[in-house]
Amino acid sequence: MNLVIVESPAKAKTIEKYLGRDFKVLASFGHVRDLPKSDLGIDTEHNYEPKYLIPAKAKKVISEIKKYEKNADLLYLATDLDREGEAISWHIVGALKIKENDPRIKRIVFSEITKTAIENAVKHPRGIDLNLVDAQQARRVLDRLVGYKLSPLLWKKVKSGLSAGRVQSVAVRLVVEREKEISQFNPVEFWLLGVNLSKVGADQIFKALLVKYDDKPIKKYDIKNAESANQIAENIKDANYKVLNILERAQIRKPSAPFTTSTLQMEASRKMGYSAKQTMRLAQSLYESGHITYMRTDSINLSADAVAAIKDTISKEYGKEYLPENANKYETKTKRAQEAHEAIRPTHFANRKVSDDSREQKLYDLIWKRTVASGMKEAIFKIITAEIEGESKKKFLFQAQGETMVFDGFIKVYLEGKDDETEETGTIPNLKEGENLDFHGLIKEQKFTEPPKRYSEATLVKKMESLGIGRPSTYAPTIATIQDRGYVYLEEKRFFPTEIAQIVTNLLVNHFPNVVDYQFTAKMEDELDQIAEGEIQWTKVIDEFYCPFEANLKLKSKELEKEDIVKPEPTGEKCPECGNELVIKLGRYGKFIACSDFPKCKYSKPLALTKEEEIAEEVKEKCEKCGGNMVIKEGRFGKFYACENYPKCKNTKPIVKTIDMACPECSEGKVVQKRTKRGKIFWGCSNYPVCKYASWEDPSKKIENESKTEDRDPQEDKSS
User: Fold this and answer.
1) Distance between CA 468 and CA 76 in Å, rounded?
2) What is the mean pLDDT of residues 215-232?
3) CA distance 572 to 286
4) What predicted TM-score, i.e. pTM, was given to this entire model?
5) Which residues contact 466 (CB under 8 A, 6 or more apart)?
């Protein structure tokens, strides 16, 4: 009997079916060893030796594996093909207390769960790649050192319960600095001038914009005020219009490369509104069901078999005219991309319906279309630019532009989404040089330059990738982490920083610049890649970072005072107990009012919310006891709803947060997050009391754990 170890039970069932009776396939359920939660777990005095423990939840798993391993002829370690998977295989060997050079140990990898791929992997095993293990270990140690060393400083100097992370804090900085750019932005006024025209006697009206006035070119921001706009407009009204020139050019649009992890997250966010975490959960499920290739990849390569299958699909479903003469080639933009891996693609292109879960099916459709489109001919457009002369007291030149699709090419299958809305080019009628045109009105619009847009999930991932911050496996957990820890929040699909994010970012930028420096963080990622390729030793990388970091940490622990970082805000009120000034301070549960003479005077009271904060627009509920408005108040356990007629009416309600998931019991309501009166979070059905479903465990996370779809977080230490 041969024993195969994979990470998830869903994968185990599929693989055991392919391998047959001579193989027993078991799941490790992710990591079987980890650093302790109770202490640092790293010996900084002795080469950063990690202290690994077997968590309680993994002890039963190891016991089960040992039962079969004793009698196994061969032990195949079939964990994922990235660094994290390599480390899990290494940890399994360590937890089983098997010698690493045991000839029974065989490491196998595959990028898709198909019978052919699995059988081929078994025929070509290798040993555990210790360079990959070292790279994962270096990342884990770095993140533990930053999280466990820096977070306590934040608790002491800013507010308890805060955390810092090597990539998490850089992602927060991006959001904070974008908000600063927006707040400091000064809009500049400009005016857009143009005319609505048509062919003589025709119904089709088209727009032409002013590009030259009295032989002087007019650029976008040249008309700066209403006075200038009105002066030019007066002459435009009385002008005669005729076509001066018609310019035609072909525009070729090439298909995009197949998906990598980051581009899949971006496109799923743009087109379907999926979060990065949700995208990865659905992709993991598709991978484990054998429908797509491995979903953590920065490669855009496709295997020869996949290219042939795409060509066959295009030929059969769309016609040979959509096939390019030579296969399309794409160049990766990611530094040190793992070119040996494949892009994310379907495993069987003939399969179009693969899941009863509508969200999963939509993501699969997206992957299928993008992959097939990547093998198709480019789309061809004809761009027509008409130069139109206007003449009255002054001469004017206008420009109208339209486009016509000549050949749809890859657009037949797939049109890429955009980060932000862009103005689409319309069509213009068939114009001829020298013909006169009818005037249908003036276009005179006041405009203002706009500040940069706040990051969406898609644009934040794109920015992190462009800076070289993080890797495919870390974007989703990093974005989830900075939300979970209260540093940023999403509003209308855009990220806003909280006040505490701005305070912490300013502290880190001023006193721990390397921790949140973009170039330094990217350099660390590059060094982790070098470790994975065996070019440098992992302990050397840790040492170069930790020694100056630790020295600075000791210095700042002595130098920094909380009052200098979070300066109390004056209220203009006097303390009723001692007469000193009352100030607003930041405490464990948010802002509160206290005496400035603390600790001599310990008077404090809750910070009253403004009327705008209290009666929030989204709160339309009425108190069922007295009919008053339910307003937002803040207490020890966070914000809650309370009747505005307090203390006459003492009715309160928890604020519920809806999860994008149907109730697992009635399927009609949505799962909502609630709090007990003592502040403990639980999950229930929005149809309560018709449906009385309730759970202490987040059901969406429960599903992730059961199907091993949780995003591993090699980057951030969630316990810090």
Assistant:
1) 34
2) 91
3) 60
4) 0.78
5) none
Average pLDDT, the chain: 86
The total domain count for the chain is 6
Alpha-carbon distance of 507 to 485, in angstroms, equals 17
Secondary structure element (H or E) that encloses residue 91, with its range:
helix 83-96
pLDDT of residue 620: 56
Overall average pLDDT of the 449-470 stretch: 92
Q: 179, 190, 176, 188: which is closest to 453 by C-alpha?
A: 179
The two structure tokens encoding residue 200: 């003589």
Cα separation, 422 vs 190, in Å, equals: 19
Does 178 score more than 80 pLDDT?
yes
- Looking at the fold, whether 29 and 45 belong to one and the same domain comes out as yes
Residues 27 and 112 in one domain: yes
Domain assignment of residue 212, given as a range: 189-254+379-448
The Cα 532–Cα 139 span in angstroms is 11
Active site residues: 294
On whether the CB atoms of residues 470 and 478 are closer than 8 A, the answer is: yes
- Per the model's pLDDT, the better-predicted residue between 431 and 699 turns out to be 431
Q: pLDDT tier at 611 (50, 70, 90 boundaries)?
A: very low
> Pairing between strand 681-685 and 670-675?
antiparallel
SS (H, E, C) 144-159: HHHHHHHHHHHHHHCC
Mean pLDDT of 130-144: 95
Helix/strand/coil percent split, the chain, to 5:
35, 25, 40
DSSP 69: H
Domain final residue pick, 339, 373, 407: 373
Q: Is 323 in a helix, a strand, or coil?
A: coil
Report the chain's C-alpha Rg in angstroms: 31
Supply the pLDDT for residue 597: 87
Residue that is written with structure tokens 């701005």 in the block: 502
- Both tokens of 375, joined, read 């093998």
Q: Would you say 541 and 532 are in contact if contact means Cβ atoms under 8 Å apart? A: no
How many CB atoms are closer than 10 A to CB 214?
A: 12
Whole-angstrom CA distances from 528 to 43, 133, 138, 535, 542 are 20, 11, 7, 10, 10
Note whether 538 and 649 are same-domain residues: no
Q: CA nearest 195: which of 424, 447, 391?
A: 391
Q: What are phi and psi of 135, to 5 degrees?
A: -65, -45
What is the C-alpha separation between 199 and 429, in angstroms, rounded?
8
What's the CA angle centered on 693, arms 688 and 699, to 5 degrees?
125
Could you tell me if 375 and 369 are in contact, meaning their C-beta atoms sit under 8 angstroms apart? no
Of the pLDDT bands very low, low, confident and very high (cuts 50, 70, 90), residue 657 is low
First to last CA, the chain: 42
**CA-to-CA distance for 46 and 52, rounded, in angstroms?**
15
Predicted local confidence at residue 712, as pLDDT: 38
Residues 356, 439: Cα–Cα separation, whole Å: 56
Lowest mean pLDDT among 129-133, 193-197, 641-645: 641-645
Tell me, yes or no, whether 577 and 490 share the same domain.
no
187: Cβ–Cβ under 8 A, 6 or more apart, which residues? 448, 449, 450, 451
Q: Please, which residues have CB within 8 angstroms of residue 277's CB and are 6 or more apart in sequence?
A: 476, 477, 479, 480, 711
Tell whether 75 is covered by a domain.
Answer: yes
Between helices 518-532 and 457-467, what is the axis angle to 10°?
70
Q: Where are the alpha helices (H) located in 471-516, listed in sequence order?
A: 475-484, 499-511, 513-516
CA 444 to chain CA mean position, Å: 40
